[in-house]
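Researcher: Please predict.
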Amino acid sequence: MNFCEQVKSVLSKYETDDFIVKTAELYGFVVSRAFIELLGRGNINLRFECDYAFVAAKVYSLLKRIFSAPPVVAKMQSNSFGKKTCYIVTFEDARFAKELLHYYGIMDGEGRIVMPTAVDESFLQDDESAAGFLRGVFLACGYIADPSKSIQMEFVFKNSLIAESFMGYLNKFGIISKQRMKKDDTIIYIRKAEYISDFLAVTGDHRDTLILEDKLAMRQMKNTMQRKVNCETANLNKTSEAAFVQMQAIEKIIKLKGLNTLSEPLIKAAQLRLDNPYASLSELANAAVPPLSRSTLDKRLRKIVEIAQLL
C-alpha cells in the first residue's frame, strides 16, 4: 500500500453519527467527483468515480445513510485515474439521484441542472463539517506523494470555478495552495510540508500526520548528510588536484634545475610535499618542524608552482 492509498484508507474509515458532518463529507464528493448525464425525458444518471474500493465503500455508505437509497457499485477501467481500475457508485433509480441534486442545489425546481460555481458554505456549518468536506474532497480527487520522495499534495477538479473556490476555502485554514492547468483539469496543489501536515490534522488523520513529519525529518537528515558528503568529496577533490599540481611542479624543478636552487623555506616546503603527497594543506602545515600556518605554507607552495611554470 503506497502512502496516498494509506492516507485515503485511514480517512475513509472515519466515522461519525453527526448528520451534518456526513452531508458535508458527501458534498465534498459531489462537487469534485460526481458526473451527471442527462438521458432525456427527464431521466438522469449520477455516478461517482472512485480510485479505491474502500473509497467507493465510503460513498456507498454515505448515500445509503443520508438518502436511504441502495446504490450500486461497479468495477471498470477509467482514464480519470491513469487508465487503471476504478469503482463507479451510482443509483439504479433516478429518483434518488434527483433527490441528491435537489438537496445540494444542483437541480432547480423545474428539473434543470445548475452547475455550482463556488463551494456552498451553508453545508459547512462548523469545524467538524468543514473537516468532513475537506475529507470528502481529498478522498474523491486528492493525491499525496510519499514524503520520503517528494513534498506534494494535489486535488484534480473538472470544474475550474469550484477549484478556485476550494483554493480560497483552504486559505481559511491557513493552508496556502497554488493552481495549474493540465489539459481540461484544474489542479490545486500544495508544496509546503507544514500545510500538508495541517491538512491531514484538520481532516482527522493524526496517525499519518506523525508519519509524514517523521518521514520529513528522515528526509531532511539524509539531505543534510548528503550535502556534508558532497562538501567533503569536493574538498578532497580540490586537495588532490592541488597536491598533484604541486608534485608536478616540484618534480619539474628537480629535473631541470634542482631543488638546491630554491630558497631554504621553499626547499623545506617542497620536501614536505614530497614526503606527504596526499596530505591536505592543514595536515602539511601541522607536519612542518616547526609547524607553519596554512597561509604561510600555501604561499610557499604557490611560489614553487609559479617558478616551475617559468621553466
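Model: Strands lie at 34-40, 43-50, 72-78, 84-90, 142-144, 153-157, 178-182, 185-190.
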